[in-house]
Amino acid sequence: MEQENTNVQVIPADKDKIKKIWRVASILAAVTIVEFIIAFTIDAGGFKTFVFIFLTIVKAFYIVAEFMHLGHEKKSLIYSVILPMLFVVFLIFILMYQGSAIFNVLY
């Protein structure tokens, strides 16, 4: 029979990693607070929509770069993820734009 190893070693926490996690969390919290302030102070319109989309992209960048570790990869892998996403966003924009053209034809 094998003998069990009951030695358990506790590794101290890596302070730099913990500091980085708190920095990213505080950036995401700050962006969210700015979104809430804009949501309740600015009237609906194009500017408000643009700011929300921009801040959402900023938050998505930090989440993907830090928590999914894409920010530490080679540029070719980053581009292979980012470029198809940009094409999909462009496709959605074009579909929304062309989809509204049906109202000009029917009425």
Describe this structure in words.
- It is a single chain.
- This protein is mainly α.
- The chain folds into two domains: 14-72; 73-107.
- It contains four helices and no strands.
- Helix 1 packs antiparallel against helix 2.
- The chain is elongated and about 80 Å long.
Oligomeric organization of the protein chains? single chain
Tell me about the biggest sheet? Answer: none
The average pLDDT is 82
Principal-axes shape call: elongated
Task: State which percent range the strand residues make up.
Answer: under 5%
**Rg, Å, rounded:** 23 Å
Summing up helix and strand content along with how strands pair, one would put the structural category as mainly alpha
What is the strand tally? Answer: 0
Low-confidence stretches: none
Features:
107 residues; 4 helices; 0% strand; elongated; mainly alpha; 75% helix; single chain
Provide the fold topology.
Layout: H1 15-41, H2 46-67, H3 75-99, H4 101-106
Put the structure in a nutshell.
This protein is mostly helical and 107 residues long. It is built from four helices and no strands.
